[in-house]
From TrEMBL:
The lineage of its organism: Bacteria, Pseudomonadati, Pseudomonadota, Alphaproteobacteria, Hyphomicrobiales. This is Major facilitator superfamily (MFS) profile domain-containing protein. Keywords: Membrane, Transmembrane, Transmembrane helix. It comes from the Bacteria. The chain crosses the membrane at residues 40-63. It comes from Methylocystis rosea.
Length: 79
């Protein structure tokens, strides 16, 4: 259950970070003058947001939180 919680947390945080980064990058580097606001929103929502969500999901699923060997070292138990 803990793994699912961290996966969902990573998914949401990754989407937010990806969308924000995409918005900043498009605002800085786009040469579009007519509908730049729309380009920022669409790129953030449909490109960089989902990419960030995928990266956050993978980070949440596979992040190491300490192993049993580390706990044994703290308690002074032999392996």
């Amino acid at each position: 259950m803990r793994r699912v919680f961290f996966a969902l947390l990573g998914l949401l945080a990754g989407y937010a970070a990806g969308a924000a980064l995409g918005g900043v990058l498009v605002a800085l580097f786009s040469g579009n003058a007519h509908d730049k606001d729309l380009e920022i929103v669409m790129t953030s929502a449909f490109v960089t947001g989902p990419v960030g969500a995928l990266m956050g999901l993978l980070a949440g699923l596979f992040m190491q939180r300490g192993s049993k060997g580390d706990e044994r070292k703290k308690q002074g138990e032999p392996r």
